[in-house]
């Protein structure tokens, strides 16, 4: 999704061009815009390991249906903490108040180390304006260092002519660059 949004905004970072907003509930370290700079590595963004701390992505006038998501662990001199069990959830909302579970990962060790990429498939979610990554509990402490997020599924968006589009961002992507393939459909 973020790669598609970047393409639709002339290659600009989705956060810095204000195509999306990001909210963090309780502490982080680093520049959040770096989470969408896939060609950069080692920038050290970290989410404070506090129970129920989250990063929420606001797609504004767009809504997305999530089918998979990718997280790349970061690198820090003390470790990214992805090598410990991470108890997290992916949730969706349309009002930023009531949240529905999309994917639940208790005591997850899939990433397992620094500077690793993992993609999780999930059941296709309903359309949501907001998607968040929430730490349900903590196992260690410090910061959960993350290099980038990417979401896959479909996005419903309106263009300047008020034509509604349904874009499918498949999680089959180029391995080297992690660029999703985009399919475009017009909704009638």
Automatic annotation (TrEMBL):
Q: For this UniProt record, give its keywords in alphabetical order, as a comma-separated list.
A: Membrane, Transmembrane, Transmembrane helix
Looking up Gene3D superfamilies in the UniProt record yields: Galactose-binding domain-like (2.60.120.260)
Q: Which SUPFAM superfamilies match?
A: Galactose-binding domain-like
Q: How is this protein named in the record?
A: F5/8 type C domain-containing protein
Q: Is Transmembrane set as a keyword in this record?
A: yes
Q: Which InterPro entries match?
A: Galactose-bd-like_sf
The membrane-spanning stretches of this chain are: 171-187
């Amino acid at each position: 999704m973020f790669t598609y949004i970047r393409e639709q905004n002339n290659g600009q970072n989705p956060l810095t061009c204000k195509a999306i907003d990001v909210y963090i509930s309780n502490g982080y370290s680093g520049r959040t815009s770096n989470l969408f700079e896939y060609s950069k590595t080692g920038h050290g963004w970290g989410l404070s390991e506090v129970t129920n701390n989250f990063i929420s992505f606001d797609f504004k006038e767009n809504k997305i249906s999530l089918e998979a998501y990718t997280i790349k662990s970061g690198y820090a001199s003390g470790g990214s903490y992805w090598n410990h069990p991470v108890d997290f959830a992916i949730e969706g909302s349309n009002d930023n108040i009531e949240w529905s579970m999309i994917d639940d990962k208790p005591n997850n060790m899939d990433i397992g180390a620094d500077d690793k990429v993992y993609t999780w498939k999930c059941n296709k979610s309903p359309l949501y304006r907001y998607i968040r990554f929430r730490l349900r509990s903590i196992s260690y402490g410090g910061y959960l260092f993350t290099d980038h997020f990417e979401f896959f599924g479909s996005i419903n968006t309106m263009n300047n002519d008020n034509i509604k589009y349904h874009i499918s961002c498949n999680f089959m992507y180029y391995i080297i660059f992690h660029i999703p393939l985009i399919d475009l459909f017009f909704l009638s």
